[in-house]
């Protein structure tokens, strides 16, 4: 009996797609659909608000009175809640890369609803993202069995993760106090570095908090443990810091460049943090790990291709700016989207 088990090990599909992984996968896919759709609905709301008031791109807030914008905002919140729940069921190495699918949803809906042309290379980028996501899903490790939030706290207190967290906090503080005052307006990696570093810790805390809530809802109250509230404080602190510096990056640099760089750094550091804290790769063989990495690289390639084609479309719009300026104002978009990276230097 023992020898039969050794000769026919379970396949990666059966290992990876446990019921928890399937739940996490469905939640992550739902999150991508809601978040991807929310960008389109919010943009439609911005267009309606911009037609009758001051555009958001030039500092107006008339969109706050537009119901369609609030529908988009609500859709995004639902997507974020689904993403939060996904971390409670599936490992970060499965959930985080699937965030790229929201880019596909957004691009396809923009092509259909907003008539924003999707270049042939954009279609190829979408295909690459789907192939890479499918590869990761099929080879994702099973979720670690955890019975209390204290177990997650013990994992976070292990020397390897404490070293990682210390390095992340130190690097983020050095960037904030030493580099941002001098280089924040001219070097894109400074702001994005802070967002990505802090973001990797926020995902680990979100996952811990999600596990605590899942166990609480199943009858094992975790809200009585101080560790649950400690993770909640870390989540709030990290998310506020992350959003603050991401907004600074988006306000200073071209969005089409910020998004893919942030996605790559944030996802890479999150996977690294998850591997260190939850030891995801300990439950896999080298072939599965390499396959997952290949899937991740495929998603990165598709993401860059999608944003590159957006740059090509922006360049086309810039060359026809005299003819299309009226339409771009109606879109409620920031007219500086297509300006090169160090756009503030050019105005000095």
Q: Strand fraction band?
A: under 5%
Distance between the termini: 77 Å
Instruction: Briefly note the structural class of the backbone.
Output: mainly alpha
Q: Rough shape?
A: globular
Strand/helix succession: HHHHHHHHHHHHHHH
Helix content: over 70%
Summarize model confidence as the mean pLDDT. 79
Largest sheet: none
Counting structural domains, the number is 2
Q: How many E strands? A: 0
Low-confidence stretches: 1-16, 318-348
The helix tally amounts to 15
Radius of gyration, CA atoms, in whole angstroms:
22 Å
Transmembrane segments: 22-41, 62-82, 88-114, 121-141, 161-181, 188-212, 224-245, 257-277, 289-306
Subcellular location: Cell membrane; Early endosome
Function: Acts as a Mg(2+) transporter. Can also transport other divalent cations such as Fe(2+), Sr(2+), Ba(2+), Mn(2+) and Co(2+) but to a much less extent than Mg(2+).
Subunit structure: Homodimer.
Lay out the secondary structure.
Layout: H1 2-7, H2 12-16, H3 19-52, H4 67-89, H5 92-95, H6 100-112, H7 120-139, H8 149-156, H9 159-183, H10 188-217, H11 226-252, H12 255-278, H13 286-319, H14 321-330, H15 343-346
GO cellular component, one term: plasma membrane
Main location: membrane
Function: Acts as a Mg(2+) transporter. Can also transport other divalent cations such as Fe(2+), Sr(2+), Ba(2+), Mn(2+) and Co(2+) but to a much less extent than Mg(2+).
């Amino acid at each position: 009996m023992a020898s039969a088990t050794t000769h026919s090990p379970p396949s990666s599909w059966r290992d990876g797609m446990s019921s928890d992984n399937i739940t996490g996968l469905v939640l992550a896919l739902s999150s991508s659909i809601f978040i991807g759709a929310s960008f389109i609905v919010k943009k439609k709301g911005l267009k309606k608000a911009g037609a009758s008031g001051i555009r958001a791109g030039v500092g107006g807030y008339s969109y706050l009175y537009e119901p369609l914008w609030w529908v988009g905002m609500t859709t995004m919140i639902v997507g974020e809640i689904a993403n939060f729940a996904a971390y409670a069921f599936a490992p970060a190495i499965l959930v985080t890369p699937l965030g790229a699918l929201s880019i596909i949803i957004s691009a396809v809906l923009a092509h259909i609803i907003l008539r924003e042309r999707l270049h042939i290379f954009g279609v190829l980028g979408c295909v690459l993202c789907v192939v890479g996501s499918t590869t990761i899903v099929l080879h994702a490790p099973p979720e670690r069995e955890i019975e209390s939030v204290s177990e997650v706290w013990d994992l976070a207190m292990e020397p390897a993760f404490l070293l990682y967290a210390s390095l992340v906090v130190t690097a983020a503080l050095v960037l904030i106090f030493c580099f941002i005052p001098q280089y924040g307006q001219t070097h894109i990696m400074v702001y994005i570095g802070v967002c990505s570093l802090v973001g990797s810790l926020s995902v680990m805390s979100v996952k811990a908090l999600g596990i605590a809530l899942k166990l609480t809802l199943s009858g094992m109250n975790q809200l009585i443990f101080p560790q649950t509230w400690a993770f909640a404080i870390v989540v709030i602190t990290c998310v506020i810091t992350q959003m603050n510096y991401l907004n600074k990056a988006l306000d200073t640099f071209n969005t089409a460049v910020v998004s893919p760089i942030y996605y790559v750094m944030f996802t890479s550091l999150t996977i690294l943090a998850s591997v260190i804290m939850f030891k995801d790769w300990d439950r896999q063989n080298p072939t599965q790990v390499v396959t997952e990495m290949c899937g991740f690289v495929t998603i990165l390639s598709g993401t860059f291709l999608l944003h590159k084609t957006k740059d090509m479309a922006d360049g086309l719009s810039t060359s026809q700016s005299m003819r299309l300026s009226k339409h771009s104002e109606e879109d409620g978009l920031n007219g500086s989207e297509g300006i090169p990276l160090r756009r503030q230097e050019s105005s000095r």
